[in-house]
Amino acid sequence: MSAPNKSYDPVEVEALKPEEIERLRDEAIAAFAAATDLDALHEAKVAHTGDRSPLALANREIGALPPAAKADAGKRVGAARGAVNKALAGRKVELEAERDARVLVEEAVDVTLPYDRAPRGGRHPLTTFAERLMDVFTAMGYSVAEGPEVEAEWLNFDALNMGPDHPARSTQDTFFLKDADSVVLRTHTSGVQIRSLLAAAEPPVYVICPGRVFRSDELDATHTPVFNQVELLAVDEGLTMADLKGTLDHMVQSLFGEGISTRLRPNYFPFTEPSAEMDMVCFVCRGESVGNPDRPCRTCSSEGWIELGGCGMVNPRVLVACGIDPNKYSGFAFGFGIERMLMFRHNVEDMRDIVEGDVRFTLPFGMEI
Amino acid sequence: MRVPLSWLREYVDLPAGETGRDIQAKLIRAGLEVEGVELLGADLKGPLVVGQVLAIEELTEFKKPIRYCQVDVGDANGTGEPQNIVCGARNFAVGDKVVVVLPGAVLPGPFPIAARQTYGKTSEGMICSARELGMGDDHDGIIVLPPEYEPGTDAIELLELVDEVLDIAVTADRGYCLSLRGVARETAIAYDLPLRDPALIDVPPANSYGPPVKVEDQTGCDRFVARSVVGVDPAAKSPIWMQRRIQKAGMRPISLAVDITNYVMLEMGQPLHAYDRHRIDGAITVRRATAGEKLRTLDGVERTLDAEDLLICDDSGPIGIAGVMGGAGTEIADAAVDPETGEVTGTTEIVIEAAHFTPVSIARSARRHKLPSEAAKRFERGVDPEATKAAAQRAVDLLVLVAGGTAEAGVTDIVAPRPVHSIAIAADLPDRVAGQEYGRETVVRRLQEVGCTVVGTDVLVVTPPTWRPDLTDPNDLCEEVIRLEGYENLPSTLPNVPAGRGLTEAQRLRRRIGVALASAGQVEVQNYPFIGEAVLDALGIEAGDPRRETVKIANPISHEEPSLRTTLLPGLLGALHRNVGRGTTDVALFELGRVFRVDGTAETLYHAPRLPVDRRPTEDEIAQLNAALPRQPHRVGAVFAGHRDPQGWWGKAQAWSWADAVEAARTVADAAGVELTVRQDQHTPWHPGRCAGLYVGEVLVGHAGELHPRVVKALNLPERTCAMELDLDLLTAGGAVKAEGPKISTFPVATQDVALVVDDAVKAADVEAALRAGAGELLESLRLFDVYRGESIGAGRKSLAYALRFRAADRTLTADEASAARESAVAEAATRVGATLRG
What we know:
By secondary structure, chain A is of the alpha+beta class. Chain A is 40% helix and 18% strand.
């Protein structure tokens, strides 16, 4: 760099002549425009904006100018360098966009390739369906009660007003243990109801009892010796059959949609009095298939109603066996099989598919039902 | 119970247009399970008429003998000329009255009739059998009618071929509906019409000269009516109307005397028995059997009697099991024709028994002898003891009417005193049970409709009718009121359930485990809990192993599998085998369920006390009930076969391995919030070198790994099948570790790798434990990223490469600090497991 020289005429410095600076600027801009890729641009950048580039060198000369000329020359060179840098940046953006576009095209894959490597799992619909029911009732304030699958006869039968001569207490219906007194595979989860009443110091008791139960039937398309039940028991002051009906209505609406209602028909069970069979309006045809041969309904066989199970007011004798004053408390109960409900809710045609554990049956039901 | 509408209408004046379907709907609402309505003769079309056989020409040139008949059908064919009909049956003679279907008619099927060529003749119609007319299929041959009907008479009406039959499944509490009388009563109430009660007939009072009867067991038999009829024509046949009603009700006409007893039973619900008086030796006696006594019953089977069986006897010994089945010895004799004189011989003097027996006694005898007879079915459910006299009278009347007999004046009626059972019930109890206001008047009216007598105002004293032994408690009466007022009219309300706390921890945990394992690629199954010795043998589980001590079922579905599972593996491996057999070769299954164990149970196992039900059991008694039960812990198990990651465009396949089984256990433990320790173990049925013992602290909670190759072979499973099983009760016994909110350091992490060479026998878990202990609290995490064996490190040795991450809570670690922690970790590993840094 030349030292400041007050007598120096800037016009004398060739590199700082305005035309020269304009030329250098235009050369640089042209070079950038001519660069067709980022590498070429980089070369042009080094050549035209690097430390050894003519404009950089010209810039250095400014220091040597007399003060009067410095500002003028500095302004000129600065403007030129600004224009050059702007052109460089602009071209860089252009070339980068071009490169990116090219690379992204080259990197494209077939996103329709199958990727079935993670093993697929699923939960059994009997489990998830029972859970759904439990959720309906826990939301209402009920607890979920569980009990043993091998049960004492007193809890499975006697306490439920099923005396020693009740026909269900035969080997045709009930699995008995070998070399045992009064111990069976439970035939319903009602024993859990009794256990719940015995465990409560005093009502209210509001429980739902899901679980596996056993009856000595052969497996076929509609029967299985091992199946799942959900039973409900409510014992409190002032409970009525209307409460039972309302609870059933709430349940079927939760599971099958708004507007589905239940119907009670008189029936007989030893553990409830009055007793009823409970039906629900067919959730598929909503009764419209009845007497309408053009629109048959296979879910309800065009009956308009689907049978759910048994229910009724807890027989006061059951309360007595559990030490609960039947003059103060009353209760209602119901029970039904999950398999059957699963079959009509999801069009399952063969019971064997539910029990055999074929993954092709279970997987479509996913994690919740 | 099958109820023909034509018969039902005899007792209730139902509106003329009312169909079976209409009545069905009404009765269902009243609580009778009317399962269906059978339409008889719906597609039947005449002409179907009475014909008289005028001539028979036997055609013998065919494979079977054929008859070519001329039959007088009156004017039914329009000409009055005899009708020519070909017939294959032979049970008729010239002069007999038969049923003829003429061309143009349609028989049930539908089966249109036309004149047709057959056996070289033109047959202008058919002579009909009972089966062809849809009357029942138990009679071979054509129907031969009694002689009194004129040829040409419409047989559709004569044989009552068009009718509707209600099919009712009668519940255990409604025995009275096993009769026309009972169903008619319900129908009358449902239609609010009067009932003509068939039991309301004139009956002469009891006297001392009826058939001799001694009732020695009055608790078993509290009523015994006996009547006698003499001069019965043994050749008399049941009239068509009676046969038809019996057929439509689902029973078979047999002989006149038997048909009459069955007819009266169907009508009134009272089972009757008819004895041939000449075959009774002395007085009829009711008593209990002595054990070992023998009786040949009507069905020809010789039965050894039990001391509990209630018997009908005469001086010679038992002549029937009371209320269940009569004996062969006193049976009404079939009519026989003397070939020389043409005289008909058979029973001419009949004793009718109409008795009332204790339901339990009958039920036990019927079950003991496997004789679920129509009589036993009714006695078991309870019949009306007050209907005995009317039923006997009705049978006597019918014997007089249709068999030409003469009723004897003697009436035996032995009555044991029976207490009148009244029920006190608050007049508003039905309202409170239903949740709906009926009011006292309605309650009283409804109870009177079902036959109760009712007195009182606020408290009603209700005496149920004798045909309703099921009405014993106030709630029984409530049901009567509520059902007759209509269950369908009950309001729908919700109780005020106290606020709940949702699922228990254990219930939530089982859900989490299910979700976690399913998310990890396993499919849930629910297997039957039945197992047999064979699968325990195949699993190599030896005698003395607690899994061999099974709970056994007295009446198993299959004698191959009489026990309850002590482990989940048999069911899981069975399901695995089934899936593989059906072509799903890559499969991972899990099950959550109980097993049944007798190890660790009390001596009182299997011996539950028989407790009363008129009070709450004591705490001690409840404990005794529980002590009779095997342990039933919850378990979770999983099995794996085939590939977890199949071959694909991304690379090679990876098989499910022992490590996945161990990982499944860790997944369960994570869900439970429990720290699981894995130790090398040996346990049947796992591969002795590939079996992990799973511990919580020092408690063994389960096993995981690859199955023993011998087991795989014995159970015909895919090679290298893996399995895991955990006891959830043990796993969670100590409770879950409560997660502490971690303090998150935002200072940079310092990463250091280390490769340690150890003996092959050294367990990775021990190396890791040493590194953790040595590294101190700056260690944030540690991960094994490579295991290497090779010449460079010498035989019998392996190199374990770990990535260590260090971080401090309060500062950026210097390189020196991180290195010092690493060196300390390596030093600890050297001390504990002899590890050296790989050079």
